[in-house]
Amino acid sequence: MQRRELLRFGVGATLFLGATSLVGCTQQAPSAGYQALREDDLPLLRALIPVVLAGTQATPEQVLHSLDHKLAALSPAMLKLSRQLFDVLSLPLTRGPLTGVWGNWANAGDAQIEAFLQRWRDSSLDLLRQGHASLLQLLLMAWYERPEAWAACGYPGPPRI
């Protein structure tokens, strides 16, 4: 690892660890109508869903309810990790430097969100690449578990018993 890479990693790790230490400061109660998703998670996810699932018939509300169902079924440790990822992406202290989205997620354009996703996908930091993969997996699983998604991919649905 070269000096510049080590410094970049140190800054990224410091920001990430600083943000996760603030996780106790964010609300942990689910938002009204949800089992696991919190009010602070919703703007981020509502901004990401149309970009990640572009070209599908997915609506943010459908995906949010499926995602909430998936998160509620996770072990407490996995739910905590997912919430930490959402917190890092939502907290203003870390959102700007780590994502390039300096304002609220609700005001972020598709190009900004695509740039953020590409930045994390191609990052030299393994932690950011893992965060990218986790986000995509969560959103894709939440959409493709829905019957509305099955026809577009040729899946006839589960067999009737």
From TrEMBL:
* PROSITE patterns the UniProt entry points to: PROKAR_LIPOPROTEIN
Q: Which organism is it from?
A: Pseudomonas xantholysinigenes
Lineage, top-rank taxon, reads Bacteria
State the protein's name: Twin-arginine translocation pathway signal protein
